[in-house]
Design goal:
2 domains; six-stranded antiparallel β-sheet; about 35% strand; elongated
Length: about 200
């Protein structure tokens, strides 16, 4: 796949060439395509070559990535093909990059396989936090299951409250007849009716 830009400044006949390959794997039912190499051509010769890494998708899909670049801050999916290659003098970055080499229908991209990793830093942090919360919950459930009843530690040590039984002779001592006016009345000597023991 060649993108021809023509003359740009000192660059005569600038062309960006994308070399795509298809392959089929035994474990996969469908074939896959991958971007194998990127070449920069100007002045009618190849000037820089980058090897592409991790740019692949099923042949019936397209590939999409926010940044495809040779810079480390964008995860460097484009790597100079050799230490002596002039590619190390170039910085190439494609923004909102989407490519599909095969099975194109009606001039539109198919469903895109994104380059976002399944284990990005945000996802890893979420998994770690979920694991910590799960451990705390498991520890709390473990403590609740093994919690012993505290009833036996708070049983009343003394006998329950009760009213002492009043003896007959106490009842006799508690009242004394008064005989001053012919009428019979009684005066309580002892005002205590009962005792409470705790």
């Amino acid at each position: 796949l060649s993108l021809k830009f023509g003359d740009i400044g000192d660059l005569k006949g600038l062309v960006i060439r994308l070399l795509l390959t298809t392959s089929s794997y035994q474990l996969s039912v469908q074939s896959w395509f991958s971007l194998h190499r990127l070449q920069l051509l100007y002045n009618h010769s190849v000037q820089a070559t980058f090897n592409a890494t991790r740019i692949h998708a099923p042949a019936s899909y397209s590939f999409h990535c926010e940044h495809v670049s040779s810079l480390q801050r964008y995860d460097a999916l484009l790597v100079p093909s050799s230490a002596n290659d002039l590619a190390k003098l170039w910085e190439v970055t494609f923004v909102d990059f989407q490519i599909q080499g095969f099975n194109i229908q009606e001039g539109h991209f198919a469903y895109a396989k994104d380059c976002a990793s399944f284990l990005s830093p945000a996802i890893l942090m979420g998994l770690v936090m979920s694991l910590i919360l799960l451990l705390v919950l498991a520890y709390a459930l473990h403590m609740l299951i093994h919690l012993k009843s505290l009833d036996r530690h708070y049983e009343c040590k003394a006998s329950p409250a009760y009213f002492a039984q009043m003896k007959d002779n106490d009842l006799a001592d508690e009242k004394e007849p008064l005989r001053n006016s012919g009428n019979e009345s009684y005066e309580l000597r002892n005002q205590q009716f009962g005792k409470i023991y705790i």
